[in-house]
Amino acid sequence: MPDWMNDPAWTALGLSLRVAGFATLLNLLLGVGVGLLLARGRFPGRNLLDTVLTLPMVMPPTVLGYYLLTLLGRRGPLGGWLLDNFGINLIFTWQGAVIAAALVAFPLVYKPARAAFEAVDGQLEQAGRVLGISEIGIFFRITLPLAWRGILAGLLLAFARALGEFGATLMVAGSIPGKTQTLSVAIYEAVQAGQDDSANRLVLVTSVVCILVLLLAGKLAPGRLAER
Fold first, then answer.
1. Rounded to an integer, what distance in angstroms lies between the CA atom of residue 16 and that of residue 97?
2. Rg (alpha carbons) of the chain, rounded to whole number
3. What pTM, to 2 d.p., does this model score?
4. Is the CB of residue 113 less than 8 Å from the CB of residue 31?
5. Calpha distance 201→49 (Å, rounded)
6. For residues 18 and 8, what is the distance between their CA atoms, to the nearest angstrom?
7. Rounded CA gap, 8 and 33, in Å?
8. pLDDT tens digits, 149-200
9. Could you give the 3-state DSSP secondary structure of residue 82?
């Protein structure tokens, strides 16, 4: 393996991209699914559920991390159950970092997805039903093609948010170099240790990656797509 690949900055970058990628994939399933449910469903407590699902957008990440630590810890209701029945421990692992990043970024997928589904013209879906198309067919042939640009915009924002996540990740996954130390956590550790050269290098890598993500988002943004 080349020496430059052993640089902690590249290790932290690789881990951050992996965590952000899996967190975004998780939110693709959960955020889009819940967004569709609340856009179309009418049930008691719908507004309260929307408020709870939006909380990660305004709540401090350290508070979210504490909730996760309480839930997923060895003595937590879910963490204890996973450990006793499957031998799975999520605390101080990169998988725990994925859950923390996914929770923080969840509203950035859920809210745009719900708005995109609510903006779909119901008459088009009704026309599909009149033509005998099944509900699944209507979703994939009418609803999703009309809503996907809003969903994509949310996913891009969620990826960028998950890439820079710090507070909840530190609470749940800690800072183990090479295992759970993401770019944001590595920068904090370097500054605390007075390692200015390492901090500068990590900040430079983070800045370049963020610029590349924004450039990609600009090319894939709904406005640009609409111009083509």
1. 9
2. 20
3. 0.85
4. yes
5. 42
6. 15
7. 37
8. 888 888 888 988 898 888 899 889 888 888 888 888 888 888 988 888 888 8
9. helix
Average pLDDT over residues 117-121: 92
Q: Pull the structure tokens for residue 23.
A: 């967190």
C-alpha 203/C-alpha 190 separation (Å) is 10
Mean residue pLDDT of the chain comes to 87
CA quadruple 122, 125, 131, 134: dihedral positive or negative?
negative
Q: Which two tokens stand for residue 132?
A: 């005998």
Question: Would you say residue 228 has pLDDT above 50?
Answer: no
C-beta of residue 190 within 8 angstroms of C-beta of residue 199: yes
User: How far is CA 142 from its chain centroid?
Assistant: 26
d(CA 206, CA 200): 10
d(CA 108, CA 86): 32
Residue that is written with structure tokens 């957008």 in the block: 57
d(C-alpha 37, C-alpha 13), whole Å? 35
pLDDT at residue 225, as a whole number: 45
Half-sphere exposure of 176 (CA within 13 A, CB side): 12
Token pair of 53, please?
């699902």
d(C-alpha 150, C-alpha 223), whole Å: 10
For 79-102, how does the pLDDT look when each residue is reduced to its tens digit (9 = 90+)?
A: 999 999 999 999 999 999 999 999
Question: How far is Cα of residue 138 from the mean position of the Cα atoms in its chain?
Answer: 27
